[in-house]
Amino acid sequence: MDPRLMGFMNSPTPQTESDYSRRGFVQLAFGWAAGAFALAASAAGALRFLVPNVLYEPSLQFKAGRPDDYADGSVTFLEEERVFLIRKGNTYRCLSATCTHLGCTVDRAEKGYHCPCHGSVFDEQGMVRGGPAPRPLAWFLVTLSKDNRLLVDKAQTVTPDKPLVT
Amino acid sequence: MNLPSPLELWRRFQRSAVGRSVFRVGLPQSSLERAQAMVSSFVLHIQPAKTHRHSLKPGYSLGLGLISLYLFFLLFATGLLLMFYYVPSTERAYDSMKDLQFVVSAGLLIRNMHRWAAHLMVLFVMLHLCRVFYTGSYKSPREFNWVIGVCLFLLTLGLSFTGYLLPWDQLAFWAITVGTNIAAYAPVIGPKMKYVMLGGNAVGQEALVRFYALHVIVLPAIAAFLISLHLWRVRKDGGLSRPAELDEPVTQVEAPRLPTAKTYGLMELARGTTPQVGADPDEFVLSWPHLIFRELLLFLLVVVVLLFLAIFWNAPLEEMANAIHPPNPAKAPWYFLGLQELVSYSALWGGVIVPGLLVGVLVLLPYLDGKPRGVGKWFAHERIVANSVFTVCLITAIILTIIGTWFRGPNWAWQQPWKPVAAHTEAH
C-alpha cells in the first residue's frame, strides 16, 4: 500500500505528502504501535505457553525407609530415585547418581563412582577425579520424618560433611 | 482384429476432450511443444524450459541436492504411513514400534525405509554442502541461497534428532538425554532451553509429545517452505553454477552500446543491457526430455537403493527406554558422534563453542569469502586456500566421528574395533 495512505486512511479528505497533520501523525503512530503490540503480545503468549506450569514428574521429596534398613558401612543404590544412600555408623548421607556432565546414571565402582557415558570418575566424596564432568556429584539433604523414616529432599543440596546423625 | 498399442491409446486419450482439459500440451512432438510442456505445467514450471549442458553433467553436481530432495519426499510418504499406527505416549510408543515390526503388513519395510532414508538424507545433505563448497557455488549471486541451504542442513539434523526419540527404546532415550544436556550448556538460556524442549526436568511423556509435534509437523513444514525457496532461488540465481567462460560469447563481437532509452525485451533486461551477440545458443538443450528424463531416472535409482537397504537391513530397536540403566556406552546418532567425542573432552567446547563457531562460519561464509573466482569448477586452483581449510575441518570431523563410532567402548574408554570387547560388568 502507498505509505501516504496508511496515515490518512481515516482522514476525510485526501492530502498530499507535505501535509502531515498532527492528527494524521498521531493516528499513524497509535495504529502501528497497537499493531506491533498485538503481534508482540501474541508471540510472548505463545512462548510462555510452551513453558509448563504443572509437571507430572515424581516429587523431589521422598521417603527412603527406616534408618535400620541400611547396614552399617553400606552404599545402596535406589533405582527409582537415582541416588545412593550411604550409611556409616549412625550417619546417613544421600548422593546423586546423575552425572553432572550429561545426565547419565553413574555406577558404583570399587572406589567411588564411574559414569558409563563419557567416562567421568568420581571419588567417595563425589569429587571429580577424571573425565569431562564439570562439577562434583550433588549431596542431598537427609532428615528424619515424624514416623522415623529417612526423608530425602532432592531440591536441597548440602556439603558432604553434613550427614544426618541419628 | 488389430488392437491399438498402449502408446496409441494414450495419444487418443490426450486428443479427447477430457484429455485436452487435463494436459494442456500433451506428449510434446516439436521443440515448441517441449518448451510449452515445461512452462505450462504447475509441477514442471519450477524448472527452466531450457537447461545448460554444463548443468546436466552428472560429474558436476553428482545429483546430490536432487537426491536429498527425493529422500525428503520418501520420508514424507513413509512418515505419513507410520503415523497411522504410532502413538506418542510413553506407554504405547514402544508397543507401536513392535506392532510395526511384527504385526502390521509391510510395517517393517516402511519403518526400515523411513529410518534409512533419514540417515541417507543427513549424509546427502552434507555431501551436497561439500559439493557446493568445492565448486565455489556459494558466491555471488548465490550467497543467500547458501544461507538457506545451511538452515536446511540444520533442519535436517533437527528432524533426524527429534525422530530419534520416538521409538522410545534405550537408544532413543539416552541419545536424547545426552543431546538435550549438551544443549543445556549453552550460555544464559541453556538450562531454560532444555526445560522448554523437554517440557520438564527429564525425558518423559511431555518430551515425547513435544518431539513428536516437532517431528511430524513443525520442522517438516518449515523444511518444505525453505526447500521451495531454495529451488526457486536456484532458478532465479541463474540455474546451477558454471564457469563464467561458458557464458562468454563465442565470437567476440564488440556490440555497439545501444541507447538506454530503447525498450528491451524481458530476456535482455534480465542479463544486462547489451544483447549477447554471437552467444552460442546450442549450449542450452530443451529440459524436456533431457533434464526430466535424468531426474526421473535418478528418482528410480534412489527408490531402488532405498528398497534394497530396507529389505536387507532392519532398523535397530533396542529394549524399552529405562531411565535407570544407561546402556554402556551411551552413544548419540552417528552424525553427532564427532561432537560427543569432543564433549567427552570438554562439554563447553564440544557442546557449545565448536558447533556454534561452525554454524556461524558456515552461515557467514559467502560474505567472508566473496571474491567471484573459481566458480563452477571442482577444486579450482584459485580457491586452493579456502578448499584446503575446508578439507582440514572436514577430515577432522570425519576422524572424530570414526573415533566416536568405532574406537569408543564401555565407559567411553579407548577400544580397538578389531579386538573383541571385554564383557563389561554391571556394577549393580
Architecture overview:
- The complex is a heterodimer of chains A (166) and B (428).
- Helix content of chain A is 20%, strand content 27%.
- Chain A has 166 residues and is an alpha+beta fold.
- Chain A has two domains: 47 residues; 105 residues, Rieske [2Fe-2S] iron-sulphur domain (Rieske Iron-sulfur Protein, 3-layer Sandwich).
- In chain A, the strands form two sheets. In chain A, strands 1, 2, 3, 4, 9, 10 and 11 form a seven-stranded antiparallel β-sheet that branches. In chain A, strands 5-6-7-8 form a four-stranded antiparallel β-sheet, with no helix packed on it.
- The longest helix of chain A has 28 residues.
- The radius of gyration of chain A is 30 Å and the shape is elongated.
- Chain B contains 17 helices and two strands.
- Chain B has a two-stranded antiparallel ribbon.
- In chain B, α8 packs across α14 and α9 runs antiparallel to α12.
- The C terminus of chain B is likely disordered.
- Classes of the chains: A alpha+beta (166), B mainly alpha (428).
- The interface between A and B is medium-sized, with 27 and 37 residues.
Short description:
The complex is a heterodimer of chains A (166) and B (428). Chain A is 20% helix and 27% strand.
CATH architecture title of chain B? Up-down Bundle
Q: Tell me which protein chains meet in the greatest interface and how many residues each side has.
A: A-B, 27 and 37 residues
Element string of chain B (H = helix, E = strand): HHHEHHHHHHHHHHEHHHH
- What is the highest CATH level, the class of chain B? Mainly Alpha
The multimeric state of the shown protein is heterodimer
* CATH homologous superfamily (4th level) name of chain B: Cytochrome Bc1 Complex, Chain C
Widest β-sheet, arrangement of strands of chain B: 1-2
The biggest beta sheet of chain B reads: 2 strands, antiparallel
Number of helices, where a helix is a run of at least 4 consecutive DSSP H or I residues of chain A: 2
What is the third-level CATH name, the topology of the largest domain in chain A? Answer: Rieske Iron-sulfur Protein
Helical residues, percent of chain A: 10-25%
The CATH architecture category of the largest domain in chain A equals 3-layer Sandwich
Large-scale geometry of chain B: globular
For this structure, the CATH topology of chain B is: Cytochrome Bc1 Complex, Chain C
Average predicted confidence as pLDDT of chain A: 85
Overall shape of chain A: elongated
